[in-house]
Design brief:
alpha/beta; 16 strands; 12 helices; Rossmann fold; 32% helix
Length: 402
Amino acid sequence: MAAFPIGRRTFLAATGAGLLLNPSASGANDRISIGVIGTGSRGMSLMGQIARLKDSHAVDITAVCDVWRVNLARAAARTEQAFGKAPFTTTRFEEMLARDDVDAVVIATPDFGHTPIMIEALRADKDVFVEKPMALDPDNANTAYDLARERARVVQVGTQRRSEGQWKAAHDFLATGKLGHVSRISSSVCFNHARWARDVSMVREQDVDWEAYLFNRPMVPFDPNLLQRWHLYRMCTNGLSGLWMCHLVDAAHIITGADYPNSAVAHGGIYVWQDGREHTDVFHALIDYPEGFLFDWSMSLTNSAGNRYNIHGRYGTMDLDRLEYSGAGGEEGKQIEAGKLTPEPDQDHMANWIDCMRSRQRPNADIEFGHQHSMVTIMAAEALETGRRMRYDRQARRIYAG
C-alpha cells in the first residue's frame, strides 16, 4: 500500500496536469500581450524569461509598472531593446489593468501587493503570474481563489518547484510505499550574509510614487528602507515564513499529496542582525498534517550550515538534496536498499504559464496550490506573532487559535 493514499485528482494536480477550462483564451490565436507590475530584481528576472520566449511562444511585454521611476525607466529601456517597441509605462497598476491591449500581468511587487493587485487583475479579466507568497491574508486568499475559478482565469504562482522534476520523482517513489509511512519531513534553509541590505542612497523621494507604493497600507512618511529593504518590515511581509517557507512547504505538498494542515506552531527571534528589522533572523515552525506527518522547517540568517530536505519513513530516509534514499533510520530488518532518484525533466515555469493561457488548462503552480501554501505560511507567521498554536478550518477556510 502507498505511504499516502493518492487519488486521481490529487495526482494530476501534483504532476501539473490540469482541467480544460475555457477554449477561447485572450490572445489564443495570436500574440499574447503581458504587462509587468513591479520591475525590481525579481521582476526584471521574470521579464528576461519572457523575452527568451518571445519567438517560441509568440508573447510580448507591452506595459511595465513600477513606483520607483528609476526601475521604471530601466525596465522600459530593456523592454524596448528586447521587443523592438517602447512599452506603456505607469507608476499605477490600475492604469495597466484598465488597458484592453494587456491580456495578462506578472505581479512581482513586495509581498503586501501580491494578492490585492491579483484580485483587481482578476476582476479585470486578466490572466496572472503572481510571485510568492501568494497571500498574507486568508480573506484575500479566498477572494482571489474564488475569482480565478469564477472567471476561468489562468493563475501561475511563482513557486517554481512545481515545475521541477525532483519533487515529482519523490512523489512517485513515496507512492510505491517502499519508504513506509512517512511521519516527518525535515527541512532547513540557511545563509549568513546580508542579502537584503540593498543600497538606499540612490532612492530619492521625488523619484518615488509613494502613494502608489503604499496603496493598501498606512500612509507613513517616505522611507527608502521600506522600498528597498521591505523584507525586514511587518507592514510589507510576514517574515521568513512567507518569504521562504512557502517554497519548502509547497514541496512537501507535492511529495505527499497533502494540501492543508491541522495546526502550526512557531518560534524565533532576532539574535544577530540588529539592523532595525521587525522580523526574526532565526525561525522554526512545526506543521501537523492530517495525513499523519509533521513538517518541521527552520531558517537561519546567522549561520549558513544546515541546509537539508529529508523525508523520514518507517523503513528508511530520503535525502532530496542528494536525490538519494537509504535504510538509514529504518525499522530493523525492514530497511529499504539504498538507491538514487531519477528526476523527471524540469519544465520552464514561465513557458508553462504561457502555454496554459492558450490551452486554458491549469498550470503547474495553479492558484489552488498558492492558496494552500498561503494558509500554511500565514498560520506559522501568526503562531510566531501570538505565541499560540494556530489551526485551520477547511470548511470555513479560516485560521483560528486553539
